[in-house]
Design a protein that fits this description.
Radius of gyration: 15 Å
Structural class: mainly alpha
Number of helices: 10
Distance between the termini: 43 Å
Shape: globular
Strand content: under 5%
């Protein structure tokens, strides 16, 4: 039951923040679904908070860059704030990864430094091969799930389908 497993909850906030950050809202939904399964008060064992599972330091940094600093970590549980900051951080990692959603998704999960280290050294790789070679099982599964969920949300939102080869072009060597 796709409507039950992939609800379009918080649609207004997701779409508005995706537009603000020039992101695909289906991708934002894919990340949110994988991160928290839409549990707004989710907290990971690592300390990540809310729908988009932001680490407190990341949330504070992004909020400051947006000109709206947060005063207390509890603000990350606020649905509107969490989606706003999560979308802004997705924009940041997408920009740092040459607009490559699979690379940006890995960066969102494991950190930009690790994702950069996992890029090939000399020649480009097909994205599916690159994903299969991510050394962290959690991040490998995370990227696979987010990309699959993004496709499902594309359909649920009645957006034009984007072929996987377009969404996940070859991974180029490290800059």
């Amino acid at each position: 039951d796709l409507e039950l497993r992939f609800p379009l909850i918080y649609r207004e906030q997701v779409v508005a923040n995706a537009q603000e950050q020039d992101l695909d809202p289906a991708w934002v939904y894919g990340v949110m679904r994988q991160e928290s399964a839409f549990v707004s008060d989710a907290r990971s064992s690592a300390g990540a908070i809310g729908l988009m599972q932001l680490m407190p330091a990341t949330g504070k940094t992004v909020a400051r860059l947006l000109g709206d600093p947060i005063r207390h970590v509890k603000e990350l549980f606020d649905v509107d704030k969490n989606i706003e900051l999560g979308a802004a951080y997705l924009r940041h990692v997408l920009d740092k990864n040459e607009q490559h959603q699979a690379l940006a998704t890995a960066s969102y999960n494991a950190g930009p430094q690790r994702a950069r280290q996992w890029r090939p050294e000399e020649q480009q790789l097909p994205s599916d091969i690159w994903v299969e070679n991510i050394p962290f099982t959690e991040t490998r599964n995370y990227v696979q799930q987010v990309m699959a969920y993004t496709t499902i949300f594309t359909s649920r939102m009645e957006q034009e389908m984007v072929p996987l080869r377009v969404r996940m072009p070859d991974v180029t060597p490290r800059p």
